[in-house]
């Protein structure tokens, strides 16, 4: 049986501010922004090259967690130095790159609500195998 993780709900306080951060500063693609009913808004964004998306909005239980509750959502990149430099150039405060051994490297940052994300580079997931 195949199972594919396709959507991770992210709790935010301001949907427009979060959408701007993820699209303008992180470069995520805005796939969906709909208001299917009174008080309900659904926004779905996908990182470039990813099969999984994040979602946030209003009026649904899926978005009911406390803003800032998500920790260390990993964004795998093939070149962490290049990815970090690009995010910093877009105004994202990214921490230093840490080599944790075996060639695995991390660099963390937060969205405007305090949800944390981590750039991750793994040597076996670069080039053609990325």
What does this structure look like?
By secondary structure, the protein is an alpha/beta fold. The chain is 16% helix and 35% strand. It has helices at 15-25, 80-89, and strands spanning 7-9, 29-37, 40-46, 53-58, 73-76, 98-101, 104-110, 116-121. The longest helix is centred in the N-terminal third of the chain and has 11 residues, at 15-25. It is globular.
SSE layout and pairings?
Elements: E1 7-9, H1 15-25, E2 29-37, E3 40-46, E4 53-58, E5 73-76, H2 80-89, E6 98-101, E7 104-110, E8 116-121
Distance between the termini: 24 Å
- Rg, please? 15 Å
Q: Tell me the series of helices and strands, N- to C-terminal.
A: EHEEEEHEEE
User: Mind summarizing the main beta sheet?
Assistant: 4 strands, mixed
Helix fraction?
A: 10-25%
How many β strands by DSSP?
A: 8
What low-confidence regions span 5 or more consecutive residues with pLDDT below 50? none
Strand content: 35-45%
Number of helices: 2
Shape category: globular
Structural category:
alpha/beta
Rounded mean pLDDT is 95
Task: Using brief descriptors, characterize the structure shown.
about 130 residues; 4-stranded mixed β-sheet; 8 strands; globular; about 35% strand
């Amino acid at each position: 049986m195949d199972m594919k993780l396709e959507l991770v709900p992210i709790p935010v306080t301001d949907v427009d501010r979060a959408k701007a951060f993820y699209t303008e500063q992180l470069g995520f693609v805005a796939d969906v922004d709909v208001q299917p009913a009174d008080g309900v808004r659904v926004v779905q964004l996908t990182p470039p090259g990813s099969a999984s998306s994040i979602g946030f909005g209003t009026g649904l239980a899926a978005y009911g967690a406390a803003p800032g509750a998500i920790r260390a959502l990993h964004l795998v990149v093939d070149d962490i130095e290049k990815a970090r430099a690009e995010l910093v150039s877009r105004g994202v405060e990214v921490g230093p790159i840490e080599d944790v051994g075996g060639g695995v490297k991390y660099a963390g940052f937060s969205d405007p609500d305090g949800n944390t994300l981590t750039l991750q580079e793994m040597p076996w997931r670069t080039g053609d195998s990325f």
